[in-house]
Amino acid sequence: MKLAPVMFVGHGSPMFAIEASHARELLDQHQSEFNAVKAIVVVSAHWVTNGYTGVTSDNAPQTIHDFGGFPTELYQLQYPVAGNPSLALEIEQQLEQAGFNVQLQAERGLDHGAWVPLMHLVPKADIPVIQVSINSYSSGEDVYRLGQTLSQLREQGVAIIGSGSITHNLGDIVRDSNQAADYVVRFEQWVREQMTNRDGKALMSAPQLQQDFFRAHPTHEHYLPLLVALGASQINDDFSVLKGGIQHHALSMESYLWH
């Protein structure tokens, strides 16, 4: 049986929705991976909940413009996708059986970590989407296990997407710079090597093992979706690296696909 795909998407800034880039072209080129998918579950760095794991359960989740200071055009964008309340209930039950504290969130929509990459991967917005949050108390091991639990859904045609960034130090962003920071290049390469080797232990221990981790991630929320995606993948999956480059001096746009 062919399993639904898993992706980690480096979603960049909200401008990724409207600006041309090599990273955007790479997502556009992989739209066919989702042709047979029945639903998509997204774990985004931009939904962190305090002490529980949230699961969206609305029939029609709203498009959340959770950012400020960007062009008006960006706030006018909508991603009019359906939800799937019955699947949300199934996810709640699976996660609770695995020991997670879960809350269904009927009023929660999709943040830009979800809808921006989906605009390029599924531009017709014709596949139901559910978003799952990151518990603020989660360790790397916790979110990896979250991915493992969600992986069961792949047999039902449900794709899993972790949306974050290989590097995310906003203090080092230089808008007009085409020169990548040395630590960003090193950290991106290190993560790529561990992902290629499926070294989950190294990736979960990155704060202790990798010298550039805290420069790359002053806070951890953009790193954790990477571990969700790895947990949802399987050793027999074909693995592809989507080298989207480095934007604004410090923002890796690299993504990964298991299919």
From TrEMBL:
Belongs to the DODA-type extradiol aromatic ring-opening dioxygenase family. One of its GO terms (molecular function) is oxidoreductase activity, acting on single donors with incorporation of molecular oxygen, incorporation of two atoms of oxygen. Coiled coil: none annotated. InterPro entries: Extradiol_dOase_DODA, Xdiol_dOase_suB. Its cofactor is Zn(2+). Keywords: Dioxygenase, Metal-binding, Oxidoreductase, Zinc. SUPFAM superfamilies: LigB-like (SSF53213). Residues 33-235 form the Extradiol ring-cleavage dioxygenase class III enzyme subunit B domain. Pfam families: LigB. This is Dioxygenase. It comes from Vibrio algivorus.
